[in-house]
Amino acid sequence: MTALTLSTAAAPGLRADALVIGVAKSSGSKGAGLVVAPGAEAVDQAYDGKLAGVLETLGASGSEGEVTKLPAPAGFKAPLVVAVGLGAEPDGEDADAGFDGEALRKAAGVAARALAGSKKAAFALPLADAGDLGAIAEGVLLGAYSFDAYKDNGGQRKNGKAPLAEAALLGAKPRDKAHKAALERATAVSEELNRARDLINTPPNDLNPESFAAIATAAAKEHGIKVQVLDEKALAKGGYGGILGVGAGSAAGPRLVKLTYTHSRNAKHLALVGKGITYDSGGISLKPAGHNETMKCDMSGAAAVFAAVVAAARLGLEVNVTGWLALAENMPSGSATRPGDVLRMFSGKTVEVLNTDAEGRLVLADALWAASQEKPDAIVDVATLTGAMVLALGNRTFGVMANDDAFRAAVVEAAEEVGEASWPMPLPEHLRKGMDSPTADIANMGERMGGGLVAGLFLREFVGEGITWAHLDIAGPAFNESGPFGYTPKGGTGSAVRTLVRLAELTAAGDLG
């Protein structure tokens, strides 16, 4: 990953391949045009206060994600200035607060990606406090991400350039406790989020439930996290019918991985549950052509939970966090679960499987019930669960459902704080009837319309009584099939990792329910 340093150096004298500055669209009260953002004063002064005009001549408008490159002025040791758009300049009541963290995060990410192949860049973006520093650091580390494990040949990169090697964050205070803490947090969260991206991007012939469990075990031991792995025999002995049923058709057996980070006996307990279908063919209910190619990403929920637990441990958060990774490969074969089969779940309930492509809710159901046995203060599950949620919210927003309205609101607010787009969704009681089964306690399918909400209602059936629970359906933002934007790459995104870490922090502070 890109190495980060906090620097008090003046921009002109810092040796680097490029100097990154911010520009924005002028607020309405100042008329249309481009403004140079705080942090770039030295560059503007070297252009005799005419930097905005020069950039406009080059076509810059300050729009979010826009990059304009120009030669550095005389006297600067960096030969190149990279001006990155921040969007609209803060105006009115927001002017004193400066640019929000997400705007800085996106700008830093865009610049870091644009500087791939460079050895060092200096970032002179607006930096008013430790929060801004953390956002910029995250943007750099996430924006510079590149998945090249399958592109290198004897050390020679076949495609593209190496990620930006080093970034100096100007205006930071290396000895300031708040700034050092912000950098530490940004580094831990970003490194683990990028680890989640690596897992999501790994081809399914190399990542199956067993190998995923081995990776989680190695990381857990490195960071003092207790780990327990249930294999096929242990799952059968324990009665985990949902996980076993989904994995029955694959030569790669399923796993349930439990990661336990314990701060103290008296700390609050947050349980995280992740869907980990390492490849989803749909099973006997086979997906049609055109829907299989990206199904390696169906373990994004488990990757997010894994990353969040490790990040919590690295940050030493004063909270107990348990992560449950429900891992299986959903394949068609002579041993696969059939439509019409009835599975007895870990909770004891029976489920009639009407569609084997509605498999994520089956593995989650067992993991949710297992998590409930420990009576945590709250459970949050994360899953690429339904195409219906993508239809409802698009490719960049995840849906949030819960059995408690206040908790649902808190999760949405936490997501907004860290820059992840989410939207509160209901759990309409009238949709529950559609899952009634004549042969089992419940069916795994209900009404087609509102399918994402139906899935949430199914999961609610397997949450222990009296336990606060939320469900994050990240089917849209988990895997980016279009071009990169902001700090988001093409491929696995690591969606929900930052929200889960924030929820752990809020739980530690006693501010979450």
Features:
513 residues, 14 helices, seven-stranded mixed beta sheet, eight-stranded mixed beta sheet, elongated, alpha/beta
Tertiary shape: elongated
Q: How many β-strands, per DSSP?
A: 22
In the sheet with the most strands, the strands line up as 10-11-13-12-16-20-17-18
Structural class: alpha/beta
Give the mean pLDDT.
95
How much of the polypeptide forms β-strand, as a percent range?
15-25%
Strand count, sense and barrel status of the largest sheet are:
8 strands, mixed
Helix tally equals: 14
Fraction of residues in helix: 25-40%
- The radius of gyration over CA amounts to 24 Å
Distance between the first and last residues' Cα: 36 Å
- Which residue ranges are poorly predicted, with pLDDT under 50 across at least 5 consecutive positions? none
